[in-house]
Design a protein that fits this description.
- It is a single chain.
- This protein has helices at about 1-20, 30-50, 50-60, 65-85, 90-100, 105-115, 120-145, 150-155, 165-170, 175-200.
- It is mostly helical.
- The chain has one domain (about 1-200).
- Helix 5 (about 90-100) packs across helix 7 (about 120-145) and helix 7 (about 120-145) packs parallel to helix 9 (about 165-170).
- The longest helix is centred in the middle third of the chain and has 29 residues, at about 120-145.
- It is globular, with a radius of gyration of 17 Å.
- The relative contact order is 0.13.
């Protein structure tokens, strides 16, 4: 949770620094955010490719284990689309793009900010940070009320890293592999799904 709050803190610092004109105009250029996005995608690729566990887990895939990330995708997108019906300022497409972050706030917020708008990027950041924080706080209650798979689904993409320890603690080591696999698949899919959703007319 400390890392999530640290991300939000840096976001707020950047917001205030820009608001009070404490940053160079060069940092506000659209090209800068594009280059930052390219760098982030490169670093994400390095992170996934450099983690040998990623490919070990993917090699163990079978049909049943695929149902976990599929459930996360269908459940998340279905929920945020229904949510958009009650929020007139958000279209179904915008709401789906935010949900398609699956908790991966750093990548999804920058991607959405670049492809759509800074406002929607900010919403994506806050919504996906909250997904991670709520999973960390309520994982025991989720496991008790909805079953041991619930914290894995709630964690989304973060089930492969930040929420993995609490998932293992409340659901058991047997669910660790499921969480790791689901998180890896969702992490890989985030840039593709967000881009695809925002490209729809």
């Amino acid at each position: 949770m400390k890392d999530s709050l640290l991300i939000v803190l840096f976001f707020v610092i950047g917001l205030l620094a820009s608001y009070f004109n404490l940053v160079s105009d060069a940092l506000l250029q659209k090209d800068m955010s594009t280059y930052t996005l390219y760098l982030l995608m490169f670093v994400v690729g390095i992170g996934i490719g450099g983690d040998k566990k990623t490919f070990d887990v993917l090699r163990k895939v079978n049909f049943k284990i695929l149902l976990v990330p599929i459930t996360v995708i269908v459940g998340t997108l279905g929920s945020v689309i229904i949510f958009s019906w009650f929020v007139p300022d958000l279209t179904m497409q915008e709401s789906a793009a935010v949900g398609a972050g699956f908790g991966y706030y750093s990548l999804s917020s920058i991607l959405i900010g670049e492809l759509h708008s800074e406002t929607l990027g900010t919403i994506a950041l806050l919504a996906n940070v909250m997904r991670e924080i709520l999973t960390l706080i309520f994982a025991p209650a989720l496991a008790w009320a909805f079953g041991k798979l619930a914290p894995v689904v709630s964690g989304g993409a973060t089930a492969m890293d930040t929420t993995l320890p609490i998932i293992i603690r409340v659901s058991g080591t047997d669910y660790g592999l499921l969480a790791l696999f689901s998180g890896i698949v969702l992490t890989i899919l985030v840039p593709f799904l967000v881009t695809f959703i925002l490209s729809l007319q």
